[in-house]
Amino acid sequence: MCASKRSQDQGRQSGATSGDRFGFTRREFIKSWSAGGVALAIGHNAMAAEVKQPNEALAGDEPVQLRLNVNGKSHAVLVEPRWTLLSVMREQLGLTAAKIGCERGECGSCTVLVDDLPRYACMVLAVEAEGHRIETAEGLVNGDQLGAVQASFMKEDGLQCGYCTPGQVMAAEGLLRHNPNPSFDEIRRGMSGNLCRCGAYTNIFTAVADAAVLRKG
Ligand code: FES
Ligand code: FES
After folding, report:
1. Which of 77, 85, 108, 215 has the largest CB neighbor count within 10 A?
2. Nearest CA-CA partner of 125 in 61, 192, 38
3. φ and ψ at 128, to 5 degrees?
4. Residue 97 CB contacts under 8 Å (≥ 6 apart), including other chains
């Protein structure tokens, strides 16, 4: 099934006619990065305001030294300006929870939190992520203990193959940080940027509702 068809199907599943997520439609989202080529804004412009502008130092493929704050740890990395946050996390930092799916901002399998907001890591350049707090599904685990959202996905069987699950978990985590008591419709809208090829939406939404209760405990 093509990506656009999946997107339409997922939109129907979610009940969202235009992918509205945190008050920002999928169409607006696509425009935001294609126009500026930078900020992955899902309803927030803060990151866009701080995005580095292209300049001579970042031109071409000359490596740039950066520090990335991922899951509370600061990492020094040497990256080319064109490299995405997703590829740097996976290939340089060994953090592989965020998955490679479409690599063009459609599927959500690469979702991470940037300053508590869900972002598609395939659409964020590593150089844009410096100075921001990045969180992946690895960061929700405390020792052997899963985070509340992860535990709820396990309990409610919110997955089948599991490929989309880390992205779904981070989208849910971002949603619940901003709305600890979402209605079912708010959950469906909040999760509308994340596709599941297995169609496990019913259990995914139930897991998010369960996580909202668990987080309060
Ligand atoms: S890999 Fe599909 S949105 Fe990033
Ligand atoms: S559980 Fe298989 S893609 Fe979602």
Report:
1. 85
2. 38
3. -80, -20
4. 136, 137, 138, 166
Instruction: Work out the average pLDDT over 119-132.
Output: 98
Q: Which homologous superfamily is 148-216 in?
A: [2Fe-2S]-binding domain (1.10.150.120)
The ligand 1 atom nearest the CA atom of 102: 2
Ligand 1 pocket: which of 7, 106, 197 to mutate (most atoms <8 Å of CB)? 106
Give the atom of ligand 1 at the shortest distance from the alpha carbon of 122: 4
Q: Give the confidence band of 217 by pLDDT, cuts at 50, 70, 90.
A: confident
User: Sorting pLDDT into bands at 50, 70 and 90, what band is 61?
Assistant: confident
Pairing mode, if any, of strands 111-114 and 133-135? antiparallel
pLDDT digits (tens, 9 = 90+) for 80-97: 999 999 999 999 999 999
The Cβ of residue 145 has, within 10 Å, a number of other Cβ atoms equal to 10
- In the chain, where are the structural domains located? 148-216
pTM: 0.76
Find the residues whose C-beta lies inside 6 A of ligand 2.
159-165, 196-198, 200
Q: What is the pLDDT of residues 31-41, one digit of tens each?
A: 433 333 333 33
Closest CA to 113 of 65, 95, 104, 32: 95
Pairing of β 64-70 and β 133-135:
parallel
